[in-house]
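Subject: Protein record for review, amino acid sequence with backbone structure tokens
Why sent: The fold of this protein is of interest and is recorded here as tokens.
Enclosed: The protein record, placed directly beneath this head.
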Amino acid sequence: MRIHQPTVSNVLEDEIRARNRASFDGAFGGIYSFWMDRPWLGRAVAMAFWGGDARPFYESLRGIGQLPEGTFVVDAPCGAGVAFMALSPSQRLRYLALDLSPLMLARAGRRARFLGLRQIEFVQGDAERIPLDNGSVDLFLSYWGLHCMSHPGAAVREIARCLRRGGRVVGAMICRGPSLRQRLILRPGTRSFGPGGTVDELAHWLAAAGLKQTRLEVSGALAYFEASA
């Protein structure tokens, strides 16, 4: 299958980033954080808007609490730190939380302090250009960010660059598709959405980045994926 790769001009790229910051720094960021922090509500919103089951997302978080000592985790974009709920204050690992929105990072920082998590480093930055050495990351969390980015394929390549040999990426993405819900709600280039991608394009991005796909589960407009370097 031939995969169409949308092109994004530098001007549009800047517009998408500015729109994302404005969206998540505004009222939507607070509303989004509220429902994501409550699995029962997150599941209801996912089904109502995207016709998909959010349980695989929340279930995937459990593994974070079982990571061995010394693991290096990158969470990008981290949002308000919903993945932190799986961490224990006693876990001795390195955890880098990166997000484009300063207010979402501030929310994540407050959450970390409330949970007593001192092992988290916070960085405001772009998930398409992560300030880390090649092959340095054991686990990359890419939850609900690829559909917001100006170059999702480039973001996946950045994930692959950061992962050590044998490292893993676990993620979730809202995908374009043929359903009426997807056509009406997921409109590329509007609100906080970038060009996005289909399920087939997501699989292509993983393969093109040299990642071995180990899981790709689709529920409505939601795609859950895992891959290894």
In short: The radius of gyration is 16 Å. Confidence is low (pLDDT under 50) at residues 1-7. The first strand starts at residue 72 and ends at 75. The domain at 10-228 is CATH 3.40.50.150 (Rossmann fold).
